[in-house]
Write a structure and sequence with these properties.
- The protein has 257 residues and is α/β, with parallel strands linked by helices.
- It folds into two domains: 154 residues, Rossmann fold (3-Layer(aba) Sandwich), CATH 3.40.50; 74 residues, no CATH class.
- Helices cover 33% and strands 19% of the residues.
- It has ten helices and nine strands.
- The strands form two sheets. A seven-stranded mixed β-sheet has the order 3-2-1-4-5-9-8, sandwiched between helices.
- It is globular, with a radius of gyration of 19 Å.
- The chain starts with 9 loop residues before the first helix and ends in a 10-residue tail after the last strand.
């Protein structure tokens, strides 16, 4: 039901794999239970621990395997020892945090568990530096290739200057933008059940954030130094770059669990 850009593509997975050290086994933290990351190709002997705060997500999506386990936990208080991880990888996870305070707390927690010199690889859902309006989206609607791209463009357009948008408000804005779902389905060829999936946003208390790439760079550094920024080639890829960052601190924080 959910496709690109909300889910990572094979190109996104290759970007993460290409960033990994290949000369030794590594300890990998996956933020969430994203199947594409949990099952990515790693050096022989590597370990994976996937952490998600929702037990249902772990039970539904995680497939155990050799040297691969899942834990239920909070990304802002990871159930891991200091300096125990070589690489932390996440897909769109910053969107779930309030900007900027929780983003900074998340960066601090990653700095605690990632070994100095280790990597953090994050695919972002990043708002454009020049915001668009709902009128812009209405004019562009014939060229938008998927319902998922439309949802994310709406979300980024209506978020507050503080980089916050209620999930319920995304559905409300869609309803105002597209009063006739049958006509949208006929014109675009999108399956009606895919369009109607936006109704899971109805009455949701969740709040998303879509900071710009510059916003994210500001809250992650220091102690993380950007190594690379990869932009995928699919629709809205410019808003879904993957940042590769290195933990530059010479010593891990002293806040042990």
């Amino acid at each position: 039901m959910i496709g690109r850009p909300l889910r990572p593509s094979p190109e996104d997975t290759r970007i993460v794999e290409d960033a990994l050290p290949r000369d030794r086994p590594i300890d990998v933290l996956v933020l969430g239970v994203t199947p594409e990351l949990v099952s990515m190709q790693l050096p022989h002997g590597s370990t994976v621990v996937a952490i998600d705060r929702e037990p249902a997500m772990v039970d539904t999506l995680f497939v155990p395997g050799p040297n691969r386990r899942a834990l239920v936990g909070d990304w802002l208080a990871l159930p891991l020892p200091d300096a125990s991880i070589d690489v932390a990888a996440g897909d769109g996870c910053l969107t779930l945090f309030a900007f900027p305070d929780q983003h900074r707390a998340f960066a601090s927690e990653l700095a605690r568990v990632v070994r100095p010199g280790g990597l953090v690889v994050l695919r972002l859902f990043a708002a454009p530096e020049e915001p668009e309006t709902l009128d812009d989206i209405r004019a562009a609607l014939p060229a938008i290739g998927s319902m998922d791209a439309l949802k994310w463009r709406i979300a980024m357009a209506i978020q507050s200057p503080e980089r916050a948008v209620r999930v319920q408000a995304i559905r409300d804005a869609f309803e105002a933008l597209v009063p006739d779902r049958a006509e949208l389905a006929a014109r675009t060829g999108w399956r009606r059940e895919v369009i109607d999936h936006i109704d899971v946003y109805r009455d949701s208390p969740a709040v998303y954030s879509f900071p710009t790439v510059a916003d994210v760079r500001a809250v992650l550094a220091p102690p993380f130094v950007e190594v690379a920024c990869h932009v995928p080639h699919y629709e809205l890829g410019d808003r879904c770059p993957t940042l590769v960052l290195r933990h530059s601190s010479t010593s891990a924080p002293s806040t042990s669990l």
